[in-house]
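Re-run with default settings, no changes from the original entry. Doing this only to confirm the output is reproducible before filing.
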Amino acid sequence: MLDVANIQVAYGQSQAIEDLSFQASQGEIVAIMGRNGMGKTTLFKALMGVLPTRQGHVRLAGRVLDGMESYERVASGLAYVPQGRMIFPSLTVLENIQTGLPKTARGEVPQDIYALFPVLFEMRKRRGGNLSGGQQQQLAIARAMASNPKVLLLDEPTEGIQPSIIKEIARILKEIRKLKDITIVVSEQVLSFTLEIADRFLVIDKGRFIHEDARANVDSEKIGRYLSV
């Protein structure tokens, strides 16, 4: 479903992502693990077209996304939940979700969004800035899901969220995969969270993948050592 081949990203003369490749199949959850500053957010921004790539290709369901603007990638089936959530605090929950809808939806939020996030239905008239961190994270995911994506990218979704809510987000992501059969790629530092949801684990270090494990034989101690400061 998602095919990333030999991409490079640089900030000026500084190489941030170097010759990086990976694939994610339909219905698969892939976890990209790494410490801060190792290239996770840069990678996701490059996939979304926010940052330009120096070389390489990104394909979604066989369609080449290279050269597309971010909104065109969303229309092609790629959705993004950025680090820090970045909801619109002055807009209501409903209005936040509506910003992710395609024009054809005419502002109508699909009922399956509220089925996945019942707390958002209860709070749909409340301003986004008045929600808790965990509720804002659910709102950011719901906004991304409003575009009916084929691939969902989540950048550090557990950041600043209490453990009980982290478990709820893990449950929601597994439910999304079950109901929608979409591909999910999540960047994280919290290993317990990714062990709960992921089918495959990739470790990134200084813009390169240095380790890969399938769920069946994941070496959590080894991955944990890569994550330690």
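The chain has a mean pLDDT of 92. Residues 163-180 form the longest helix (18 residues).
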